[in-house]
Amino acid sequence: MTLPSSHFRSQTTTTAVFASAPSTPNHLRSRVMPTSTPATPAAVPAANPDGTGSSDTPSVRRERQGSFGGSQRAKILKPFNTANIKILLLENVNETAVSALRAQGYQVETHAKALPEDELIEKIRDIHCVGIRSKTKLTRKVLDAAEKLGGIAVFNSPFSNSRSVAELVLAEIVLLSRQLGDRNREMHEGIWSKVSSNCYEIRGKTLGIVGYGHIGSQLSVLAESMGMRVYFHDVVPLMPLGTSKQVSSLDELLSVSDFVTLHVPETEETKNMIGERELNLMKQGSFLINASRGTIVQIPALAKALRSGHIGGAAVDVFPKEPAANGKFFESELLGCPNTLLTPHIGGSTEEAQSMIGVEVSQALIKFINYGTSIGAVNFPEVDLRAIKDEENSIRLCYTHMNVPGVLMRITNILADHNVDKQFSDSKGKIAYLMADISDVTPEQIQDIYRRVSETPTNIVTRVLY
Ligand SMILES: NC(=O)c1ccc[n+]([C@@H]2O[C@H](COP(=O)([O-])OP(=O)(O)OC[C@H]3O[C@@H](n4cnc5c(N)ncnc54)[C@H](O)[C@@H]3O)[C@@H](O)[C@H]2O)c1
């Protein structure tokens, strides 16, 4: 199974692709029924010296015990020899991810830069999981070369940088209000231009937030702490934070705000959301900020409104067309517009965000590899089961398969004589994923279940965790 490379690209987040864990019965042969390893109290999961098991964090243990009513211990699954798992991290993926994955006992190879296609093709052959940022292109050719590849789950971390974006926008509100971009440029040109006309404090001014999600709501709190009045518009009714208020339409928001800031996703509805009509609805001399997606604002209309003075200034971090590499490639009608702050899509680009992304994505990967949990995958059915009971003869079956009629009947037939404690399946497009926890199975029965499930014609990857 391969997916278009666009599935693996993300401008602001680390995207990790899990390419399949060893799923042959080797681990069953070598260690059919291991005894469970007691969890260590370490804050970070630590691998056993032989790499055969993973220890666990206290918080994970609490979570699992809770799901069994507190008294029954949760089982620490031993999917395989963790030391056999090879992970390739490119583009300087944050150290938090590197150490979390190494702590599991996985082999982690890191590179500071993206690799060219031919080098990536060589490297990816025996890799189970690859972590990238925005430069790497996992093309069809590259994916076809990945011999361990049976199914791909892509995990990203879209909300780790919300705070970074909100802080940048808050700063831009002050900068625009004081025309700081222009003063800074003039000073660098040797021009001393001390002015106070049309420069304002932000205290008491109205901020209009379009899209009250992760970033919009975070900004709402920060702006109120600076003394701003906050209104927002969102397509869904939302609980306002602090003393902010939801207004009933975009038009209303535009007409009452001194600053309008956009925090909506890119959808058919939000494309070209702010054009000439909307800019004309905004107050004379008000400001527009866009750190969401480039297609949401019609740039020629904004440039015209800035040059006419109807819009008093703008801060733009995202553009309909953005250069693919750093260098002197940027062109826009906004170049040279008055009081206009232009930044190269850096809203979420901070050390803190990178670190959070490393933590979040590596945890998602570890859960997928060790427990089969695919929650948070962007292209793959999202399935989770509560923890498996701490009994020696229970297993977890993870079955990635083609989403066609009749599969569940086949699986039910295979499992018919066994005690299935819990089972969950979900599909996304052509792919479906089933997880089932089965108790009271002998080592021979485990082999048999594995063989029969992996031999089904719809099989993509079958894994048995035990
Ligand atoms: N500049 C950067 O570096 C950077 C970094 C992170 C995110 N972003 C972008 O910021 C935007 C917001 O991110 P987020 O994490 O807050 O998203 P989010 O999904 O948490 O919130 C988006 C909000 O917009 C609302 N919404 C959707 N369509 C709408 C419409 N037509 N009108 C009004 N509201 C609408 C949704 O209901 C939701 O509350 C996204 O476009 C994201 O890609 C940019």
Automatic annotation (TrEMBL):
Domain annotation ACT: ranges: 396-466
Enzyme class (EC, first level): oxidoreductase
Record's compositionally biased regions (Polar residues): 1-27
UniProt keyword Membrane, yes or no: no
Domain of life: Eukaryota
EC number: 1.1.1.95
Record keywords: Amino-acid biosynthesis, NAD, Oxidoreductase, Serine biosynthesis
NCBIfam families: PRK11790.1
Similarity field: Belongs to the D-isomer specific 2-hydroxyacid dehydrogenase family.
The name this protein goes by in its record: phosphoglycerate dehydrogenase
Originating species: Lunasporangiospora selenospora
Lineage, uppermost ranks: Eukaryota, Fungi, Fungi incertae sedis, Mucoromycota, Mortierellomycotina
